[in-house]
């Protein structure tokens, strides 16, 4: 399988501390790739570098072979790289309907149109309805996002990334904060993604990771520690040490 | 040439005494106090009344100006400002602009709208020459007073218990609270002293800045520039910024009178764009 | 997916932009004021251009979240340009001069918009304030052109479209300002209810996420800032044309600060805030000025302080309640109007 997203010796320093130290990661097309590691290992920083929220101190990022290291965040989205956030980042004053509509119009290049009224494009409306239905948001689509229960907000968080119709999707702990019995709803939507969409998942819950991923990278102290298929990673004594060590500390 | 430098330094040091309180309130509580100049004006008018009408000695007038303005500052802080800390910058701006408007109109009502002058002792008037440099006696006094105040402030901040609490609070109010520092009390006291210093500066500076009811509006920009250029993480930043702006302003007005005012506005905008944290601020850790 | 639902959603989206009964009432009242209050046309003229100016600020503050303490920069530029165009006979026809002045203000807005892209609210406050101060200083330093501190005198405004001469009672002036306000309001309304307008609210609400769904945050901010500067320039030009005068105080800090008050009184983010605020502000100013001509600024200051202490949210909640009530009444009494998606006069 061809590599779709790649980092080359990626570094990010905050002050004197290296949060990400020389990470070279290759993600294959259609992969279900998980990025795991103890708290503070730099997982979210990697996502922020990949999506352009942060600029790397050194190293390169390649999306489908093209260097996007210094590309603005919104342009990366237009090239098919979308993400969700570990902590919900939503437009609290808008409704789910408007929120999803925004992402779709933006993808279709009509987001900057000022002469048409919102909702006048039937294709956009159809797609909004489809996505809201898929994420069980139809019943609350006219409500203010800020008033929705957390579980619904979490679904919208993911729906919004899907609405960008990404070729590469970065999921930062999609089930974070969601009660056990509501998780399956979110995980099912993730599992139902088309096979050609590449997914990079950050997750703490090892059950989720091992049931979902076909490849796992372990990040420790900002550096890539182990990288391989799940079975291999599970057997690796060093990984066990890291995780056992962490759970002993906690 | 050296005379201009001298005048610029005097002006700059005066600006520092006027603005340092603002810098601390901004750094400590993230509070935008556009009404800071109103305290300076209060100090000026208090001294004016005491010296010109009641015949108090000039220096006693300055001292009273400091104490009374500090008291007014503390009073306002406890009764009014305290309600506004948690609000958005827009609210803070609206609130303090409101205070400025009220202060301007109130002083106009009580004292009249004309420009006024505080009678300064004759010993402080005129200028003399040292090595060919014209030195205004009053400006020399300003430099002396402000210099002593600056040193005293620096000393208090760097070596007293209160100073270390203040620095901790400015660095990170949350952590400071966690360490058991009563940040609100630190802030109240700082606000009072900052207001008092502004009052003192207003009284001291009436001679060269002029004093009329529009004072807080006229000099608001200067204070803001000092704070923006100097940053809010220390007092050395605002001090350096004050000197820079004082000298630039005096020199600008002298050499290129047509563009004098542009110089400092332009400095402000450029600094804001290039170094939003302030020209002399440490590189932020975040 | 159920096609019925698609139709319903499309209809629901279309009704977002539908004209509410209260909106008709507002503009009917404005029209009526022209015929019913002929001897109040002078102050009504002032209300009209102030409303446009406040609408301009609402576009950036209420919809895009950009705080400005220097919106007078664009107002002032439009004002001086309109006065200069007329005085030197460069463009005599007022409507053309109005548009030209607005466009020049928009150019200034575009050029300075890059300064407000970065930084915190505080940085934006100071940068915008700085820009307005620099504009004022420029006007002050070229008295040959601007008349300096004395203001630009000897301006004669030609008849509008060559037909309607300004009169001393302000009849023509009010009609002119009201029409300009209405047209630009319609345009602003269109923009606000467009995908672009929606994306502005997203940018205001969460710029990080906005960029993460592909919105070019900076481009949107530059666009709306430029657009708002155009409106402010037009408002300033209206002032200059209706008074045949321009002076340094068009750039003053007080003007920018008063403008914030106007908008805050009326509320941000629903387009009518600036308009209602302008009415209340001018009436209040007029009333206070009659009581204590010299010290009205004190009372303006007091209003600002009280608004903040009571809390803008709490005040907005109350007016929001009024709005909700009004919408309910609208729905009950105008069921026939419901399917009308494109309001008359929107000119699309």
Write the layout of secondary structure elements.
The complex is a heterotrimer of chains A (250), B (286) and C (348).
Chain A: E1 3-14, E2 17-23, E3 26-28, E4 32-36, H1 43-51, E5 58-63, E6 66-67, H2 73-78, E7 81-83, H3 96-107, H4 122-134, H5 150-163, E8 168-172, H6 180-191, E9 198-202, H7 206-212, E10 215-220, E11 223-228, H8 230-235, H9 237-249
Helix pairs in contact in A: 3-4, 3-5, 4-5
Chain B: H1 2-29, H2 36-53, H3 58-79, H4 89-111, E1 127-130, E2 133-136, H5 137-159, H6 161-171, H7 173-178, H8 183-209, H9 215-230, H10 236-255, H11 260-274
Helix pairs in contact in B: 1-5, 1-6, 1-8, 1-9, 1-10, 2-3, 2-4, 2-8, 2-9, 3-8, 5-6, 6-8, 9-10, 9-11, 10-11
Chain C: H1 3-16, H2 21-36, H3 41-61, H4 72-87, H5 94-113, H6 121-141, H7 143-146, H8 171-192, H9 195-205, H10 207-212, H11 217-243, H12 253-266, H13 272-291, H14 296-310, H15 312-333
Question: Could you walk me through the main structural features you see in this protein, from its secondary elements to its overall organization?
Answer:
Chain A is of the alpha/beta class and 250 residues long. Chain A has helices at 43-51, 73-78, 96-107, 122-134, 150-163, 180-191, 206-212, 230-235, 237-249; strands spanning 3-14, 17-23, 26-28, 32-36, 58-63, 66-67, 81-83, 168-172, 198-202, 215-220, 223-228. Chain A has a 6-stranded mixed sheet, with helices on both faces. In chain A, strands 1, 2, 3, 5 and 6 form a 5-stranded antiparallel sheet that branches. In chain A, helix 3 crosses helix 4 (122-134) and helix 4 crosses helix 5 (150-163). Chain A starts with a strand and ends with a helix. Chain B is mostly helical. Chain B has one domain (2-213). A two-stranded antiparallel ribbon of chain B has the order 1-2. In chain B, strand 1 (127-130) and strand 2 (133-136) form a beta hairpin. In chain B, helix 2 packs antiparallel against helix 3 (58-79), helix 5 packs across helix 6 (161-171) and helix 10 (236-255) runs antiparallel to helix 11 (260-274). The longest helix of chain B is centred in the first third of the chain and has 28 residues, at 2-29. Chain B is globular and about 55 Å long. The model of chain B is unreliable at 282-286 (pLDDT under 50). With 348 residues, chain C is mainly α. Helices cover 72% and strands 0% of the residues of chain C. The two termini of chain C are 31 Å apart. The relative contact order of chain C is 0.17. Mean pLDDT of chain C is 87; it is low at 330-348. Classes of the chains: A alpha/beta (250), B mainly alpha (286), C mainly alpha (348). The B-C interface holds B 26, 32, 80, 83-84, 87-95, 97-106, 108-109, 217, 220-221, 224, 228, 258-259, 261-262, 265-266, 268-269, 272-273, 276 and C 61, 67, 69, 115, 118-123, 125-127, 129-131, 133-134, 137-138, 141, 253-254, 257, 260-261, 264, 294-298, 300-305, 307-309, 312.
């Amino acid at each position: 399988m061809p590599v779709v997203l790649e980092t080359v010796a990626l570094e990010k320093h905050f002050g004197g501390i290296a949060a990400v130290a020389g990470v070279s990661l290759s993600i294959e097309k259609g992969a279900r790739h998980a990025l795991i590691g103890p708290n503070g290992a730099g997982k979210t920083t990697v996502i922020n570098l990949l999506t352009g929220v942060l600029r790397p101190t050194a190293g390169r990022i390649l999306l489908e072979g093209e260097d996007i290291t210094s590309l603005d965040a919104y342009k990366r989205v237009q090239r098919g790289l979308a993400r969700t956030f570990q902590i919900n980042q939503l437009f609290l004053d808008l409704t789910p309907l408007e929120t999803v509509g925004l992402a779709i119009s933006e993808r279709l290049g009509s987001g900057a149109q000022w002469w048409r009224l919102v909702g006048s494009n039937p294709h956009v409306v159809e797609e909004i309805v489809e996505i809201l239905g898929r994420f069980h948001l139809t019943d609350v689509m006219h409500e203010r996002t800020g008033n929705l229960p957390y579980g619904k907000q979490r679904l919208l968080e993911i729906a919004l990334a899907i609405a960008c119709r990404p070729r590469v999707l970065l999921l930062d702990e999609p089930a974070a904060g969601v009660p056990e019995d509501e998780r399956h709803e979110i995980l099912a939507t993730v599992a139902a993604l088309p096979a050609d969409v590449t997914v990079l998942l950050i997750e703490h819950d090892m059950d989720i990771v091992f049931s979902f991923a076909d490849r796992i990278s372990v990040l420790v102290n900002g550096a890539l520690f182990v990288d391989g298929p799940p079975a291999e990673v599970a057997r690796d004594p060093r990984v066990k040490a890291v995780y056992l060590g962490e759970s002993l500390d906690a | 040439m050296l005379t201009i430098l001298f005048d610029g330094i005097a002006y700059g040091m005066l600006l520092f005494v006027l603005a340092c309180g603002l810098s601390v309130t901004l750094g400590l509580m993230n509070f935008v106090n556009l009404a800071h100049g109103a305290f300076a004006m209060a100090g000026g008018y208090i001294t004016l009344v005491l010296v010109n009408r009641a015949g108090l000695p000039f220096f006693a007038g300055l001292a009273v100006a400091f104490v009374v303005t500090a008291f007014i500052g503390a009073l306002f802080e406890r009764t009014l400002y305290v309600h506004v800390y948690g609000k958005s910058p827009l609210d803070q701006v609206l609130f303090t602009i409101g205070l400025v408007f009220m202060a301007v109109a109130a002083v106009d009502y009580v004292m009249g709208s004309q420009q006024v002058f505080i009678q300064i002792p004759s010993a402080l008037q005129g200028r003399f020459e040292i090595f060919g440099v014209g030195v205004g006696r009053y400006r020399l006094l300003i430099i002396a007073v402000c210099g002593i105040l600056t040193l005293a402030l620096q000393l208090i901040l760097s070596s007293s218990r209160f100073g270390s609490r203040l620095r901790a609070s400015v660095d990170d109010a949350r952590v400071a609270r966690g360490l058991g520092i009563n940040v609100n009390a630190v802030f109240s006291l700082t606000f009072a002293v900052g207001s008092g210093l502004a009052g003192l500066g207003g009284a001291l500076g009436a001679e060269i800045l002029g004093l009329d009811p529009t004072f807080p509006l006229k000099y608001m920009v200067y204070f803001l520039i000092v704070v923006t250029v100097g940053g809010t993480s220390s007092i050395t930043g605002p001090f350096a910024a004050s000197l820079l702006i004082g000298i630039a302003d005096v020199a600008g007005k002298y050499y290129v009178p047509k563009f004098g005012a542009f110089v400092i506005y332009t400095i402000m905008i450029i600094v804001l764009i290039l170094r939003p944290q302030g020209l002399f601020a440490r590189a932020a850790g975040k | 997916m159920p096609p019925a639902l698609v139709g319903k959603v499309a209809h629901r989206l279309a009704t977002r932009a539908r004209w509410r009964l209260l909106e008709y009432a507002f503009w009917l009242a404005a029209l009526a004021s022209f015929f019913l209050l002929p001897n109040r046309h002078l102050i009504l003229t002032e209300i009209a251009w102030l409303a446009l100016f406040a609408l301009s600020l609402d576009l950036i503050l209420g919809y895009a979240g950009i705080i400005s303490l220097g919106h007078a920069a664009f107002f002032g530029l439009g004002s001086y340009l309109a006065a200069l165009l007329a005085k030197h006979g460069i463009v005599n026809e007022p409507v053309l001069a109005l548009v030209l002045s607005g466009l020049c203000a928009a150019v200034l807005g575009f050029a300075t918009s890059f300064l407000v892209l970065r930084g915190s609210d505080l940085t934006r406050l100071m940068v915008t304030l700085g820009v307005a101060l620099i504009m004022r200083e420029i006007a002050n330093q070229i008295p040959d052109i601007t008349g300096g501190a004395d203001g630009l005198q000897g301006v004669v405004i030609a008849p509008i479209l060559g037909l309607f001469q300004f009169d001393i009672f302000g009849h023509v002036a009010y009609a002119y300002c009201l029409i300009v306000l209405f047209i630009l309001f319609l345009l602003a309304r269109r923009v606000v209810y467009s995908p672009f307008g929606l994306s502005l609210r997203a940018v205001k609400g969460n710029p990080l996420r906005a960029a993460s769904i592909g919105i070019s945050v900076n481009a949107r901010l530059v666009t709306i800032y430029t657009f708002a500067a155009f409106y402010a320039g037009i408002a300033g030009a209206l002032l200059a044309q209706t008074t045949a005068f321009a002076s340094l105080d068009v750039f003053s800090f007080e003007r920018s600060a008063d403008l914030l008050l106007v908008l805050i009184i009326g509320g941000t983010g629903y387009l009518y805030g600036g308009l209602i605020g302008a009415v209340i502000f001018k009436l209040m100013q007029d009333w206070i000025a009659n009581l204590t001509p010299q010290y009205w600024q004190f009372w303006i200051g007091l209003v600002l302080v009280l608004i903040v202490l009571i809390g803008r949210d709490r005040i907005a909640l109350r007016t929001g309640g009024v709005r909700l009530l009004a919408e309910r009444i609208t729905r009950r009494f105008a069921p026939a109007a419901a399917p009308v998606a494109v309001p008359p006069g929107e000119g699309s």
